[in-house]
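Give me the fold.
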Amino acid sequence: MKPLRIATRRSALALWQAEHVASRLRAAHPGLEVELLPLSTRGDEVLDTPLARIGGKGLFLKELEYALLDGRADLAVHSLKDVPAVVEDPFALAAILERADPADAFVSSRYASLEVLPPGARVGTSSLRRQAQLRAVRPDLEILDLRGNVNTRLARLDAGDYDAIILACAGLRRLGLETRITATMAPPQWLPGVGQGAIALETRAGDEATAALLAPLHDAATAACARAERALNRALAGDCSVPIGAYAGLHGERLHLYGLVGDARTGTLLRADAAGAADQPEVLGDRVAALLRAQGADALLGKDDGAHA
């Protein structure tokens, strides 16, 4: 059997995720040789410009997809929240792993929570979704852009550039940095990014041999939740220039989906939620998107510019 090659970004978190997938594959298929192909993406290289202005989150995928197309890799490992709502041919999402903590993390060395930050405190995040929710609850804060990998962002906080920053709990925990989580900002009160906390495995469409190897890693419950969230995002034509949050929870045979559309400049938030059959997640996603539209979401969509959600 030829080695299975995994394309991955070079960041510490991306490499952790790729190594995790490789370990799971070796355990599921004894004797399988798995190799990593670390690549640098434009999304990683251009850190002084908001993602929306240089092509969006898809820039974290392109170089990895090129490696799939030219045969250098058999699969690519992504954070699901970075995968566009529509995965175009000739690619497919072959598996979604069990989701880690989907919540955002409030990180500060001086303050215990968002609520106790003093007026005018500097909070770092380039996420429009996070900015919109921050402005909704604390319009008195100064919100500043912050890009780069997890360690770079933490270093800037420690250097005093910010009083607090907002990161994903899953990334901090995966890197062994859970002690940096000062407070958890959890759904449904605070909504994460679409698919946040889940790892997605992308292959060439029609590569049944690779898909069969990945099948044991697929988590059906996480996939159902992610499909509902991604359907909402797709129905709203969401991309990195619009603050959209979503979180679906599975309760027996029912899914409960919470959705949010916001304005990062004003803190205006529109919220909607609904429950539906777990075996029809896209129907539920479309329904919650329609509820948001009925509240006037179209007036907010496309209104913001700047960074990634």
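The radius of gyration is 19 Å.
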